[in-house]
Design goal:
- The structure is a single chain.
- It contains twelve helices and twelve strands.
- With 357 residues, the chain is α/β, with parallel strands linked by helices.
- It folds into two domains: 162 residues, ATPase, nucleotide binding domain (Nucleotidyltransferase, domain 5, 2-Layer Sandwich), CATH 3.30.420; 170 residues, 2-Layer Sandwich (Nucleotidyltransferase, domain 5).
- A five-stranded mixed sheet has the order 3-2-1-4-5, with helices on both faces.
């Protein structure tokens, strides 16, 4: 099977997304994303039951909207893909069930897709990776991926579609979790990443010294200690339940935290470049939208003589375009794409994706 036009659904967490991608040209024909900020904001984090309900309510409309935007009919679609893991179980079930039902009704193949593989391959889409796609798909040159999301922080060597080696992962909090927890300490809205970046823009990154976490694996990550250091500072400067902003400027703390995270990610990436000899570096995932982190990684790559690729912001967050492309690319390379009997997998290591059909 070698599908060309793939319709995909992404519901692994709190983004409801649909997209149609032309696999041969790597072009996004249309995509729709609904971010559930309103539903989860009162709770300071994602509530699985609310996420699942929002997916169920939004998917039918988003599917039709995406089809209209692309100017296509369902008969023009070659295959239906959906994220089946990793992610929130109930949220995954909604998207996978909708996609399977659609596939059966239309008589189209169903492609079960790994959310992390979607992020890993997203920089190859035409909106981003012309040069990278040429090197990777046509010249078989591997690339180094720094994946930074709400649930994952990993350095991964991408050898070819379906073949990945994890060089280092976080031993505790993912970087996105650390941003959210620090944002909550500062009283910022969820999701905290954009709020911290906005607040940090008015702060002095050198004003509040913070520790740089150490790990046994030189390519591994740890953000729990950094988060704890921020919490202790906030508690130290809190009086009667209110942060004393005269003794601890929230903007300075946000800037220091953000810069520390960017420095850690850049140093680990530099070490991975040296260890692997990678000539191409990619950053993907929601946290990749942070400008300070991007700038730090760009500098590391420039110093190492490596290319740097980052998806546009709309492809950094959870999206269905990356799911469509990953599914279609796997099918074209003869890799396992699952079936209607494939169950959702809340945990699904990327290394498991190398199995052949």
């Amino acid at each position: 099977m070698s599908p060309n036009v793939v319709f995909a659904i992404e519901t692994s967490c709190d983004e409801t997304a649909t997209a149609i991608v032309d696999i041969s040209t790597r072009r996004i024909l249309a995509q729709s994303i609904y971010s559930q900020y309103t539903e989860h904001a009162p709770y300071g984090g994602v509530v699985p039951e609310l996420a699942s309900r929002a997916h169920l309510e939004r998917l039918p409309h988003l599917a039709e909207q995406t089809l209209r935007q692309a100017g296509l009919q369902w008969s023009d679609i070659d295959a239906i893909a959906a994220t089946v893991g990793p992610g929130l179980t109930t949220a995954l079930v909604v998207g996978a069930t909708f996609a399977k039902t659609l596939a059966v009704g239309l008589g189209k193949p169903f492609l079960a897709t790994n959310h992390i593989e979607g992020h890993a391959l997203s920089p190859l889409l035409a909106e981003t990776g012309g040069a990278l796609a040429e090197a990777f798909l046509n010249k078989s040159e591997p690339y180094l991926l720094l994946l930074v999301t709400g649930g994952h922080t990993q350095l991964i060597q991408v050898a070819k579609p379906g073949h990945y080696t994890t060089l280092g992962s976080t031993q505790d909090d993912a970087v996105g979790e650390a941003f959210d927890k620090v944002g909550k300490l500062l009283g910022l809205p969820h999701p905290a990443g954009p709020a911290i970046e906005k607040l940090a823009a008015t702060g002095n990154a050198a004003a509040v010294p913070l520790p740089h976490p150490k790990t046994e694996n030189p390519l591994g990550f740890s953000f729990s200690g950094l988060k704890t250091a921020v919490r202790e500072l906030v508690l130290k400067h809190t009086e009667n339940g209110t942060l004393n902003t005269e003794t601890l400027n929230p903007a300075d703390l946000a800037a220091s935290f953000q810069t520390t995270v960017a420095t850690v990610l850049a140093r680990k990436t530099a070490a991975a470049i040296q260890a692997t000899g990678s000539r191409h570096v990619v950053v993907a995932g929601g946290v990749a939208a942070n400008a300070t982190i991007r700038a730090a990684l760009m500098q590391v790559c420039e110093e190492a003589g490596a290319t740097f690729t980052a998806p546009p912001l709309i492809l950094c967050t959870d999206n269905a375009a990356m799911i469509a492309y990953a599914a279609g690319l796997r099918a074209r390379h003869g890799l396992d794409t699952g079936s209607l009997s494939t169950r959702v997998l809340p945990r699904w290591p990327l290394e498991d994706m190398a199995t052949s059909a």
